[in-house]
From TrEMBL:
PROSITE patterns: MARVEL (PS51225). The chain crosses the membrane at residues 33-56, 68-88, 100-119. Residues 3-123 form the MARVEL domain. This is MARVEL domain-containing protein. PANTHER family: CKLF-LIKE MARVEL TRANSMEMBRANE DOMAIN-CONTAINING PROTEIN 6, MARVEL-CONTAINING POTENTIAL LIPID RAFT-ASSOCIATED PROTEIN. The keyword Transmembrane applies. It is found in: Membrane. It comes from the Eukaryota.
Length: 152
C-alpha cells in the first residue's frame, strides 16, 4: 500500500508542477480545477504518510485509519479522474498541458491501483469477512460447536 501511495503522491506532485509551467490557457477553469486537485492530492497524501509513518497517528484520535485511507484514496481517484478528463478536453494543446494531463492520468491510475490493492488484500474495510463488525469494537466469538451438558 505505501509504495503505491508514494507513487501516486509523486505523480500528483509532478502533475501539479507541470501544470504550473503552463503560461497561458484557453479554458482556465479546467486548469485551475486540475491545479487545485493535484496540489490537494499531493499535500493530503503527504500528510497521511507523515501521520502513519510517525507516532503522531496515535495522538490524532482517529481509530479507523484503514477506513480513512480507503475512503480518501477512492475519493481522490475519482476526483483526479474527473479533473484529468476535464483538463484533457479543455486545454490549449501545449506540450506542458498535454504532459500534465498524462501525469494526471498516471496519478489517477496509481490511486485506482491503490484502491484495488486495498480491496484485494483487506476486502471492504467497512465489512469484515462479509459480516458487519460488532458495535462495541470487539471481535465476535465463533459459535460453539459442541453443546455442554447434553443429556444422553
Amino acid at each position: 500500500m505505501i509504495p503505491a501511495v508514494i507513487n501516486a503522491d509523486v505523480l500528483s506532485l509532478v502533475a501539479f508542477l507541470l501544470e504550473e509551467l503552463v503560461s497561458s490557457c484557453l479554458s482556465c477553469s479546467a486548469l485551475y480545477f486540475f491545479e487545485f486537485l493535484s496540489c490537494t492530492a499531493f499535500l493530503f497524501t503527504l500528510l497521511l504518510l507523515i501521520l502513519l509513518s510517525t507516532p503522531l497517528h496515535s495522538r490524532v484520535g482517529i481509530s479507523c485509519w484503514p477506513k480513512l485511507d480507503f475512503v480518501y484514496t477512492a475519493v481522490m481517484a475519482l476526483l483526479f479522474l474527473i479533473a484529468s478528463i476535464v483538463f484533457a478536453a479543455e486545454n490549449g494543446g501545449s506540450k506542458e498541458e498535454m504532459t500534465a494531463v498524462v501525469f494526471g492520468f498516471l496519478a489517477t491510475g496509481m490511486f485506482f491501483s491503490d484502491v484495488g490493492y486495498f480491496l484485494k488484500t483487506r476486502g471492504l474495510s467497512f465489512m469484515r469477512n462479509g459480516t458487519p463488525e460488532t458495535s462495541n469494537g470487539g471481535v465476535a466469538a465463533p459459535a460453539e460447536v459442541e453443546k455442554l451438558n447434553v443429556p444422553e
